[in-house]
Amino acid sequence: MTTPAVQITGVGKRFGSTVALANIDLVVDENEFVSLLGPSGCGKTTLLRIISGFEYPTAGRVAIHGTDVTFVPPHRRPTNLVFQRGALFPHMNVADNIGYSLKLRKWPKARIAARVEEMLALVRLDDLGGRGPTQLSGGQIQRAALARALAAEPRVLLLDEPLSALDLKLRQHMQLELRAIQRKLGATFVYVTHDQHEALVMSDRIAVMNEGRIIQEGSPRDIYTRPASLFASDFIGETNLLQGTVAGFADGLASMALRDGTIVMARGSGSETPGAPATLSVRPEAIRVALETPAGAASTSVAAEIIEIMYLGDRVRIEALTADSTVVLADLRDEEAAALQRGMRVVLSWSPAAAAVWAEAPRTAPG
Amino acid sequence: MTGMVPGWNTLRQVGPAAAFYVLFFLGPLLILFLYSFWTMDGYTIVPGLSVASYVEAVTTSLYFAIIVRTVLIGVATAFLVVPIVYLLAYVMLFVLDDRNRRLLDLVLVSMFSGYLVRIYAWRTILGKEGLLNSALLQLHLIDQPLTFLLFSNFSVVVTLVGLLIPLALLPMYSSMSNVSREHLDGARDLGSRGFHLHRTILIPMTLPGLNTAFAIAFILSVGDFVVPTMLGGAQGTMIGNVIADQFKGSGSNWPLGAAMAFLIMAIMLAVYLVVTRALKWVTRW
Amino acid sequence: MGDAVVGTGRDAIRTSAPRRPELLFARLFVAIVLVYLFAPVVVTVLFSFTTSPRLSLPIEGLTVNWYANAFSNPLFGRALGNTILLAVVTALGAGALGVLFSFGLVVLRGRVRGILLTASLVPAVIPVLVLGIALAVFCNSIGLAQGIRNAAIGHILVALPFVILTMNARLETFDFTTLEAARDLGASPWQTFRDVTFPLIRPSVMGAGLLAMALSLDEFVVTWFNVGTEQTLPVVIWGLLRRGINPSINALATVVLVSLIVLVVLSNYLNRRKV
């Protein structure tokens, strides 16, 4: 077992009486691309800043490649940070920005120049070394910031939502570029984002955070298909939430009573107390739409009326209203939706393994 | 960043200037305030706690008249300066917006010949044998030189206005430049025009700038003593003259001077509050 | 005139162009105000060259005698020296105190920061007359004799609010993440200041310093009450003015005017070259 690139043990952070982080344990291996994913205020940026040295934890330890760096200031850590808006030095051109860390390390001029060339090529800013930061577009700024952070070959690269200021197409393009660069260099990346799609696309592993804790950790597939909490299932990807109360539990399946009395079932944990508030979570792509209840699906379906049909190019999204006034979204292929029309009464069903029941009510109104 | 929270470092940075202020601004003002409660017995200053100096400042008919005249001159000056700089800023920003930066610089350059010299120059312009009179005589527009031009309230106000326009323009311009053209266009689109537009939209939006411009014009004119000395003549004395006289002239009644200083500052504050409240009230809708 | 796209950013789209009469009125108004403001300046320059000491029309002849007169004034040399000394001291003193103070303000939150900022601007709304006499009385009571030193204190006091105002405005738009970036890339606090902070604030610091200098050069009131028997340029001018009309003052003023213009043009040029 090789030394992990980053090891965070029991880290906590308080700001006065506010707890920003509690009991964080995380291991990042070499050559891994790990994302810290969560909504604003969940503590992901604080954690990143603790790894980079701009904050010191109030509890716990941070180690980079085996060396304890918990209280080491940022300029002495082998990590580099790519800032959200780039933070390029406005009074230096791109080449000088990139070469700054090397100048500090007293590299000879020729070597710096060669390295800057290399970095420019890597991020595909080849002829833009002489430009000033104010003459660059958003994407170019981020690439320059990336090049600057990579120039001195840090052992761990930290990225603080670097793509959030870019527009969609550019962001998608840069996501792939970042991933490619990471693989090419064999570097370790720790990436902070609130965009779950971005995390799914780029990461080897995702740590989902909420309210100062890591609530789930795993590969993109694990996080998506087996969310460990209602929060995770709602935050990652899209999902439908049906509210009700716990009815019972048998053979790994929990049953729940909707507000209109219909009983529905899905995977459960078994710890649900009958009568407690519960939510059933099922993703749009896991729902089948039919005119009648399919055989054997009596307790994994609800009746609804189609209120909108949206053609999204790669799929057709059905919006339907259930008896207890919940809007449910179902994604179908074009052929499957062919016979459907607005106003039709249909039955929405799912396979029990593809949905989950959680013994809590959603924080915000679903849908 | 670990250095971005207030700490000892912050104290070291804020400290020196703060100490300077306390020592050379607050200290002197407090001592002066103390003096205002002392009295004068012949040629010696008598420490104590008495409002005699304040009473003397207000009840002596000469001083009272001077105070009233000073406040009126201040109000007149400010009521001229503020509309001028308001219009100037409006025109520079919304009518002539292609050259406004240079115009602003030009206005500021007019201050470069110096405070005293500009006052002296107005004397040259307004005098009986001065520029304006000799020009009017030469053009046969008048056959006797106009005497009211100099050594009168008129000359004091004209000079003060000329001195204060550049200074008052700065806050006005700054405040108005925060209003974007879209605000005005939006209002116009909804039917507002002309005076109504100014009263209900632009003036309320630039109220901070207007208040500051008024404060500058009013405070600097009420507190001035150079202009009345040079251009005010015998009837043009302002309270600034009387105060200055106590400390560097024939007066030397420090307690009286101090009392007058605080008295006039209190009046300034009162007038400022009244005018700014009134302005806010007038532009309510 | 028609509608046109002028400028950039939020003023890019001109949806309503001013009509012809409005434009004409605007231009006329500005012209009148400029004439009003520059009348004294023109008069000063003009009458620094006329032969007649009477300063009225018609103009009889031109001469540079008044300049020679001004330069031969015995008080002039000493006053100039003091004035320049005070200007430099004010720029350095108010500059150092004000820049430091502004940096301290940056990390303070909401109320404390607001209170400190407002408090630092108070001297600007107190009449200079009061500042002058208060300082004189204070120095008198603690035994600080009048002279250049006291005047310097007064100058710094007058200039500080404006230095703080200027620097604070600059720092509010300063991107402090660049400093973090420098630290992150390996720069020590000193290196960060040298390589990033200072180059980025230098134009504003210099601007504030020049402003302090300009305020000091023209400062008369506070100086007069605190400088005792020493002389500064404004004090000398005041003395000459009290004695009656003297055209060599015009010569002096024109020299100052030209110097200031040159100074400002020079500093603008330097600023444009660096950042």
What key attributes describe this structure?
heterotrimer, B: 285 residues, MetI-like fold, 2 strands, C: 275 residues, mainly alpha, globular
General description of the model:
The complex is a heterotrimer of chains A (367), B (285) and C (275). Chain A is of the alpha+beta class. In chain A, 23% of the residues lie in helices and 34% in strands. In chain A, α2 packs across α3, α2 (94-104) packs parallel to α4 and α3 packs across α4 (138-150). The longest helix of chain A is centred in the middle third of the chain and has 18 residues, at 168-185. The two termini of chain A are 45 Å apart. By secondary structure, chain B is an all-alpha fold. Chain B is built from 13 helices and 2 strands; from the N terminus they run αββαααααααααααα. In chain B, α3 (61-95) packs across α7 (153-176). Chain C is globular and about 70 Å long. Chain C is built from 11 helices and no strands. Chain C is 72% helix and 0% strand. With 275 residues, chain C is mainly alpha-helical. The chains are: A alpha+beta (367), B mainly alpha (285), C mainly alpha (275). The interface between A and C is medium-sized, with 25 and 18 residues.
Write the layout of secondary structure elements.
The complex is a heterotrimer of chains A (367), B (285) and C (275).
Chain A (H helix, E strand, L loop, with lengths): L5 E10 L2 E11 L4 E5 L6 H9 L6 E6 L2 E2 L10 E4 L11 H11 L4 H14 L15 H13 L5 E5 L7 H18 L2 E6 L2 H7 L2 E6 L2 E6 L1 H6 L4 H6 L4 E11 L2 E6 L4 E5 L9 E6 L5 E3 L10 E11 L4 E7 L4 E6 L12 E5 L5 E4 L9
Parallel strand pairs in A: 3-8, 3-9, 6-7, 7-8
Antiparallel strand pairs in A: 1-2, 1-4, 4-5, 9-10, 11-12, 11-14, 12-13, 14-20, 15-19, 16-17, 16-19, 17-18
Helix pairs in contact in A: 2-3, 2-4, 3-4
Chain B lengths: L7 H28 L3 E3 L2 E3 L5 H8 L1 H35 L4 H10 L5 H12 L4 H8 L14 H24 L4 H9 L4 H12 L1 H16 L3 H7 L6 H10 L5 H29 L3
Antiparallel strand pairs in B: 1-2
Helix pairs in contact in B: 1-13, 2-3, 2-13, 3-7, 3-10, 5-7, 5-11, 7-10, 7-11, 10-13, 12-13
Chain C lengths: L19 H27 L18 H8 L1 H33 L3 H12 L6 H14 L6 H25 L4 H8 L4 H29 L3 H6 L6 H10 L5 H27 L1
Helix pairs in contact in C: 1-11, 2-11, 3-6, 3-8, 3-10, 6-8, 7-8, 8-11
